[in-house]
Specification:
- The complex is a heterodimer of chains A (428) and B (94).
- Chain A is of the alpha/beta class.
- Helices cover 32% and strands 27% of the residues of chain A.
- In chain A, β8 and β9 form a beta hairpin.
- Chain B is of the alpha+beta class and 94 residues long.
- The chains are: A alpha/beta (428), B alpha+beta (94).
- Chains A and B meet through α2, β11, α5, α6 and β15 of A and α1, α2, α3 and β6 of B.
Chain lengths: 428, 94
């Protein structure tokens, strides 16, 4: 049997962020990671928004292996054979401090793991946590690969499924309506070609989101992020919609069809796929979250359901980093009190409540319900495509007046439905 | 080229390390349970397939450990674990 001050289950962003705060306090921290290295089991779309976490980890960002800073945002509505794209950029988004960066998790987490190890944290990879050690209702450690490992407190940072939090009775098994499947290809494209093709200067990058036909109208969308020398191209789709909503189609086929669209095919042309990955994403928001703490345990990151989709932005990694940071603060307070019961560890929830993390989750608590509306993913992308086609089309004969062209789509039932949808959007 | 790659081809790009035991199994007697059909649609690695007798079969080669089948089908039909430490998929990009 071995005894540590803190055991962290999972060497992802939440776990490593917690360790990064705790080791300098002179505590014995053990991080258990089941992959060969931190990041080996992790996937992002994806991008990291730095503003909320920049000051929490000063000194970390200068050397971090970030890919490109996002200087161009695009949102495309995809109809059958038409698409409409909204592009947002300009000098402000392209100026320092940059608000977000594309990243690749196997690179980033591995690097963060090294920083944490340098501080004295014990990072043990290839180690799967199999069970919790529970005595008199208090979690006293974990069993991992036959080893009995004890600690004052365990921080469960084992990702979206968090079997650790489930075993601790802090959450139920994940439900299809609260989770989405994300899967992507990393496609290598020459750096120069990326910059020419996407109109980028130096380390500038672009983030593109796609709604509509890409998921066949199911909850979710497509994404494309430019990395330094590759593209991350993939799809997020709600598991309930994927398995129950018509048209039923296999997830991998969605991506293949997406890649064949002319809008996408020209962007990845000549590229070489080098990896195919998948992960599930919590989408339940505030109402889908489990309990964040128990006797001798805290839950952080995806394990706590801390990821959020509000349509324009999909975020999770900064919530993981911040919750790891606050979990560490809570542990330090519990240590000072000499008590790791639920009563003392409840300070973790208080810290999160006072931070941007829970304030965001409360502000956007209606988002999952509002985004359940299939009209956003099915109807509006098609409608936009049809209106654009008619506005831009010059027929052989006389052209219809513009007002009449649009009016043809704006029937009374349509306007009525739009007002109802607007009522929903107002709640986000 | 990335344009027209098969799913098997894509999975062939990933690094996998073999595990001693199968980490996910269809529970005995549940092979025809309709809940398993959801995994045929949802599994991003296409590892679930229905045979002529209507049974769902699972081949674990290429499992990305996303957990989508655990969520879609539930634990009444699946015995679900992560692979042992250091086994299974090891992403190089993620």
């Amino acid at each position: 049997m071995e005894k540590f001050d803190i055991i962290i289950v999972g060497g992802g962003l939440a776990g490593l962020a917690a360790a990064y705060q705790l080791a300098p306090e002179g505590l014995e921290v053990l991080v258990l990671e089941k992959g060969d290295y931190p990041g080996a089991k992790n996937v992002t779309g994806g991008r990291l928004y730095l503003n909320p976490v920049r000051d929490m980890f000063p000194g970390l960002w200068g050397k971090a292996p970030l890919e490109r800073f996002i200087a161009h945002e695009e949102l495309s509505l995809l109809a059958d054979e038409r698409s409409m794209t909204l592009r947002y950029d300009g000098g402000e988004l392209g100026s320092e401090p940059y608000q977000s960066y594309s990243i690749l998790r196997a690179k980033f987490d591995r690097w963060l793991g090294k920083q944490v190890e340098k501080q004295g944290t014990m990072l043990v990879c290839k180690s799967r946590v199999d069970d919790l050690i529970v005595e008199n209702g208090q979690i006293e450690g974990v069993w991992a690969g036959g080893d009995e490992l004890r600690a004052d407190v365990v921080i469960a940072c084992d990702g979206a499924l968090s079997l650790t939090a489930e075993k601790a009775g802090l959450r139920q098994a994940a439900k299809p309506e609260d989770y989405a499947l994300g899967f992507k290809e990393v496609i290598e494209v020459d750096r120069k070609v990326i910059e020419d093709r996407f109109n980028l200067e130096g380390d500038e990058g672009v983030a593109r989101l796609f709604m509509g036909e890409v998921t066949r109208g199911k909850f979710g969308g497509g994404f494309l992020y430019t990395n330094k020398e590759s593209l991350s191209l993939g799809i997020v789709v709600g598991i309930k919609d994927l398995t129950e909503e018509e048209p039923l189609i296999k997830a991998p086929d969605l991506l293949d069809i997406f890649k064949q669209r002319p809008e996408i095919a020209r962007l990845i042309k000549g590229g070489q796929t080098v990896e195919y990955s998948a992960h599930v994403i919590p989408e339940g928001g505030y109402h889908g979250m489990g309990k964040l703490y128990g006797n001798g345990i805290l839950v952080a990151g995806d394990a706590a359901g801390l990821s959020m989709n509000i349509g324009m932005t999909v975020r999770g990694m900064e919530y993981a980093l911040a919750s790891g940071y606050y979990a560490a603060q809570a542990v330090l307070q519990a240590r000072q009190a000499g008590d790791y019961s639920e009563k003392t560890l409840a300070v973790y929830e208080q810290l999160l409540n006072d931070s941007f993390v829970m304030q965001d989750f409360k502000s956007f608590q209606e988002a999952p319900k509002v985004l359940e509306n299939p009209r956003f993913f099915k109807h509006y992308p098609q409608l936009a495509g049809s209106i654009m086609r008619d506005l831009y089309r010059i027929p052989a004969g006389p052209k219809e007046r513009l007002y009449k062209t649009v009016r043809a789509y704006m029937t009374v039932p349509e306007i009525w439905a739009m007002l109802k949808d607007y009522g929903g959007i107002r709640r986000i | 080229m990335s344009e027209n790659m098969t799913l098997k081809g894509k999975l062939g790009l990933d690094v996998f390390k073999a595990d001693k035991l199968p980490h996910i199994q269809i529970k005995t007697g549940m092979e025809k349970d309709p809940r398993l059909k959801k995994a045929v649609l949802a599994c991003p690695a296409g590892l679930y397939a229905q045979n002529e007798e209507g049974q769902i079969q699972l081949s674990l080669d290429g499992c990305l450990e996303c957990g989508c089948c655990r969520i879609a089908c539930g634990l009444e039909v699946l015995e679900w674990h992560y692979p042992g430490g250091g086994c299974g998929v090891q992403y190089r990009f993620g």
